[in-house]
Amino acid sequence: MRAEPQRIVVVGASAAGLSAAEALRRGGYANKLTIIGAETHRPYDRPPLSKQYLTGEWDAEKVMLRPAAHLEDLDVDSRLGIPASGLDIDASRVVLTDGTEVGYDTLILATGVSPKTLPNTRHLRGVHTLRTLDDADGLRDELHAESRVIIIGAGFLGTEIAAVAALRGARVTLIGNAAPLAGILGPDLGAQLGGLHASHGVTLKAGPEAAVASVLHEDARATGVVLRSGEVLLADVVVMSIGSVPAVGWLRTSGLSVADGVSCTTDLSAAPGIYAAGDVARWHNTRYDVSMRLEHRINAVDQGIHVAEQILAGTSQDYTPVPYFWSDQYDLKLQSYGWLRDHDEMLVTEGSLSEGKFVALFRRGGRLTGVLGARSHKALRTWRQYLCDGASWGDTLDAA
Asked: Lower CB count within 10 Å: N or C terminus of the chain?
């Protein structure tokens, strides 16, 4: 039987890292446990940053994942506000930006992602990304009634920010490659979601000619954007929601494979004694026979727990979830189970997004791979079970 590690280090102090630490302690691990975090804040929840926190409905304390005394109760060596800068696998040591080194027997990588930005814009006032609590504070302070807000990127984060900004009375323009979320939902549902935003006063710009060619600025403050078509859009606030990249820069010389996240085997191990969890982890999900990296809150928690349980048991178990995510837009809560990307067919079995209540099924090959809906909780739970059972598309059509 493998000896229990004497020193476990978790790099990343958000949902995945915290859930791993909690699961270790809950499972009886009593040896040294260190959590390293880039931010000074104690672990907090990220999804509310583009929802309840951005609206002002929640304050900072409410987005914290645990009370202030929780890390003390966990008996962890907490290194918050000191990012990791390097990893020496041969010596089993994590190097921090303050020059200190932390040794480990087992290492959990949970550093998440960093938002992408357009070139030469990081120094401009009025340009925002939304990943951290500090990002949300800066953006919230500038979302005023009648302010002109341009949001570049019509994915989940961009559309959620657009909804909040519109509800706060801002004049919002949402720019995307296609209809909102069309790359995941398909063109029909994407168009219906676009209609929902338009009904709340959001101006939609989509297609190749709507791509942002440059950001206008004066006195180091953004004043608008120029589209590829040549159209000029003036703005007080420019939000970039154009995707993210795994936070793996500090691992480039470690010897780990980090092309698009930390490459893991099916059980989330990246190397002997090293695991990854959360947004930064790329692994092969054998349930769908797909290599995936999920930026979903529930997945981060579940992966952290999965890794902790393997460390405690000394076993290797495949991680094969049915992914889940949700998105709040105005009074509509979209919920999904499964894998929607790269689908071959999407079938709406009841309602429509424009009606505010619907269920849509997604097929890849001969299998049901995903379900998306709103205000259809009972139906979604039923279809989730079909996904867990590996239902064929034929069985799905019979049930529908």
From this structure: N
Residues of the chain with pLDDT under 70: 1-2
Q: Who contacts 212 (Cβ-Cβ below 8 Å, separation ≥6)?
A: 118, 152, 175, 225, 226, 227, 228
The predicted structure's pLDDT at residue 399:
77
What is the structure's pLDDT at 2? 64
Which among 126, 393, 105 has a CA at the least distance from the CA of 235? Answer: 126
Torsion sign over Cα 186, 189, 193, 198 = positive
Q: How many residues does the chain have?
A: 400
Whole-model pTM: value is 0.95
Q: Which residues contact 5 (CB under 8 A, 6 or more apart)?
A: 31, 104, 105, 106, 273, 311
Q: What's the CA angle centered on 373, arms 177 and 17, to 5 degrees?
A: 75
- For residues 397 and 158, what is the distance between their CA atoms, to the nearest angstrom? 33
Please give the pLDDT value at position 4: 86
Report d(CA 171, CA 152) in Å as an integer. 14
Strands 237-240 and 148-152: parallel
pLDDT in tens, 102-131: 999 999 999 999 999 999 998 999 999 999
Predicted local confidence at residue 186, as pLDDT: 85
Buried b (16+ CB within 10 A) or exposed e, 134-146: ebbebbbebbeee
| Pairing mode of beta strands 127-128, 237-240 | parallel
Q: Largest Cα–Cα distance of the chain, in whole Å?
A: 67
The alpha carbon of 304 is separated from its chain's Cα centroid by a whole number of angstroms, namely 15
- 78 in helix, strand or coil? strand
Q: What per-residue confidence (pLDDT) applies to 233?
A: 98
CA distance 231 to 242: 20
Tell me if 154 sits within 8 A of 176, measured CB to CB.
Answer: yes
CA–CA separation, 180 vs 187, rounded Å? 9
